[in-house]
Every structure is written in C-alpha cells, then in structure tokens.
C-alpha cells in the first residue's frame, strides 16, 4: 500500500513511521516544500515530495494539518482519493467556527465539502501522537486499543479499518461523516485509551463535553 501524507507535524510523522514499519510505501509533504523534510527522509525512511506529489503517490492520503488551513488545500489532487482526515478543531488555534461550535456540521463534513470528489474518512484524529507510537498491538491482544472512524463511503471505510489493523489498532465504525462529532475534541471518545466495547459506549455518550485538555495523559 502507498500512503501519501499531507502535513509533517507530530501526527503526520507518526503516521509515516507506522506506515514504514508496517511495510507501506510512504511519501510525506508539508507546506514549506520537500527541501525542509530531509530529517524525515533519513529518520523515518519515507519518501519526501510536494503536496501534489504526495497526493498523486498515495493509494490513501492522510491529511494532518492545522484545521484552520483546510480551505487552502487544492482540490484537484485529491479527487478520487481515499482521505484519512486526522484533523481536529481547536478554536484558539484555528479561529472560532460557529458552525462547529453549534454542532451544525462536523470537521470532516467541512473537509469533504471542500475536497469535492474525495472519499473522506475521519480517522486517526482521536489519538495522541505519542500513543500512536506506543499503543499499537498485534491482532487479538487483550489490551489492544480501539480507534474510531466515520465516513459515507463503505469501501473507503473498509480500507481505513485495514490500515488501523495493520498499524496495531482495532477499528470501530461510528457511522456516517455526520456522526464524526462523537469523537471530535473534548468528546468522551477523544484521545482516551479504550477497547472496542469501551469505545462503543463512549461514542454512544451524548452528554456534555469532558474538561478541556483532560485527554492529554
């Protein structure tokens, strides 16, 4: 499998490491250009390229950028691609978005509206970077962590569930993109170590948000 990664921050680099470790062919990119990514190439063992090159390269393309910049992404390179949308909305960083504050839509629905023609799946947003590196386990392990996903394309979700498994995690399908709010920032399912049954219960919890930052363990 070939994975293109847009964004070379903590999550982007962690996904690149997991991809290489699991035998995937990986290309990472950032907004500043491949000339700034020499350390990623040597430390991770991945390819480096421009955003357009990484998008063209990947059978699957992970997007892990500050969410407030998502509208700066060009649309054409992502048409037809399965997108791993690992983004999260932080108002202090991204600016206040009333449609998200009022739960009129979700982060991944906004991403899908912008990237028309892409097959967007919300995934890898509900885990901290350090836990991506440490929490993966072989299939069947009693302490295997589960991660949520959401999307409107069933085949794309199947592919993403396979990636979760390949990277050492169980997958729990939360439903359509419109259900992605259930594991956005500050929800009970956000960035907490849970097994499959615990994650399903957290996704079903429609109560208030958890205290800001309580998930940073």
Structural commentary:
With 217 residues, this protein is an alpha/beta fold. Helix content is 33%, strand content 16%. The protein contains nine helices and eight strands. The chain has an eight-stranded mixed sheet, with helices on both faces. Strand 1 (2-6), helix 1 and strand 2 (25-29) form a beta-alpha-beta unit. The protein is globular, with a radius of gyration of 16 Å. The mean pLDDT is 96.
Could you give a quick summary of the protein structure above?
The chain has 9 helices and 8 strands. With 217 residues, the protein is an alpha/beta fold. Helix 1 links the parallel strand 1 and strand 2.
Please outline the helices and strands:
Blueprint: E1 2-6, H1 10-21, E2 25-29, H2 38-44, E3 47-48, H3 51-57, E4 60-63, E5 82-85, H4 91-94, H5 98-101, H6 107-114, E6 119-123, H7 129-134, E7 146-151, H8 154-167, E8 170-173, H9 196-204
Parallel strand pairs: 1-2, 1-4, 2-3, 4-5, 5-6, 7-8
Antiparallel strand pairs: 6-7
Number of strands: 8
Strand content: 15-25%
Distance between the termini: 32 Å
The radius of gyration is 16 Å
Kindly state the mean pLDDT as a whole number?
A: 96
Shape: globular
Largest sheet: 8 strands, mixed
- What order do the SSEs take from the amino end to the carboxyl end, as H and E? EHEHEHEEHHHEHEHEH
| Number of contiguous helices | 9
Class by SSE composition: alpha/beta
């Amino acid at each position: 499998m070939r994975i293109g990664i847009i964004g070379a921050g903590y999550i982007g680099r962690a996904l690149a490491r997991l991809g290489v470790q699991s035998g995937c062919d990986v290309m990472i990119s950032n907004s500043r250009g491949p000339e700034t990514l020499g350390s990623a190439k040597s430390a991770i063992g991945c390819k480096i390229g421009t955003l357009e090159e990484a998008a063209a390269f990947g059978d699957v393309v992970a997007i892990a950028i500050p969410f407030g910049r998502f509208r700066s992404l060009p649309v054409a390179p992502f048409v037809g691609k399965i997108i791993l949308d690992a983004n999260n909305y932080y108002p202090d960083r991204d600016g206040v978005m009333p449609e998200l504050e009022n739960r009129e839509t979700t982060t991944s629905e906004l991403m899908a509206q912008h990237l028309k023609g892409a097959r967007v799946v919300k995934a890898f947003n509900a885990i901290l970077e350090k836990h991506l590196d440490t929490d993966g386990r072989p299939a069947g392990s009693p302490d295997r962590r589960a991660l949520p996903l959401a999307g409107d394309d069933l085949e794309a979700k199947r592919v993403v569930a396979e990636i979760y498994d390949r990277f050492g995690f169980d997958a729990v399908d939360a439903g359509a993109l419109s259900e992605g709010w259930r594991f956005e920032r500050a929800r009970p399912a956000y960035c907490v170590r849970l097994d499959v049954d615990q994650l399903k219960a957290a996704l079903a919890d429609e109560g208030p948000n958890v205290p800001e930052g309580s998930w940073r363990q």
